[in-house]
Write a structure and sequence with these properties.
With 97 residues, the protein is mainly beta. The chain has a single domain (4-84), classed as SH3 type barrels. The chain has one helix at residues 4-7, and strands spanning 11-14, 20-30, 35-47, 51-60, 64-67, 71-74, 82-87, 93-96. An eight-stranded mixed sheet has the order 5-6-1-2-3-4-7-8, with no helix packed on it. Strand 1 (11-14) and strand 2 (20-30) form a beta hairpin. The termini are far apart.
C-alpha cells in the first residue's frame, strides 16, 4: 500500500528524457468509481536563476508509467493544463489558469 504522504516525497520525472517536472502536491479521485484520475504536481520556474513562480500541472493517471522508490515516471503527451499560484499579502491563495 502507498500513502499520499509517501507519494509526495517522490520526484515526478518524464520517462522519455529524465526531466524532473516537480513534486506531487495532490491527487484527484473519482469517488463514483473509486479510482485516481489525475496527479497534481507543483513546478517552479526560475527567473535569472533566483526568483520563481509556482505552477501546478495536472497529469492524467493514464500517463503514469511507474511508481518507484524515489520517482514517479510519467509519459510526455502534449501540454498538461497548468495553474499559476499567487500568494496574496494576507497569505491567502489565488489560482489563475
Amino acid at each position: 500500500m502507498i500513502t499520499l504522504s509517501s507519494l509526495q516525497t517522490k520526484d515526478i520525472v518524464y520517462i522519455e528524457d529524465g526531466t524532473k517536472i516537480g513534486n506531487l502536491t495532490d491527487i484527484e479521485i473519482n469517488v463514483d468509481i473509486g479510482r485516481i484520475t489525475n496527479l497534481v504536481v507543483a513546478t517552479k520556474s526560475k527567473v535569472f536563476g533566483m526568483f520563481g513562480e509556482t505552477r501546478e500541472i495536472v497529469i492524467p493517471w493514464a500517463q503514469v508509467m511507474k511508481i518507484g522508490h524515489d520517482v514517479i515516471l510519467v509519459k510526455k503527451n502534449g501540454a498538461f493544463p497548468t495553474v499559476q499560484i499567487n500568494q496574496k499579502e494576507d497569505n491567502s491563495t489565488i489560482f489563475q489558469q
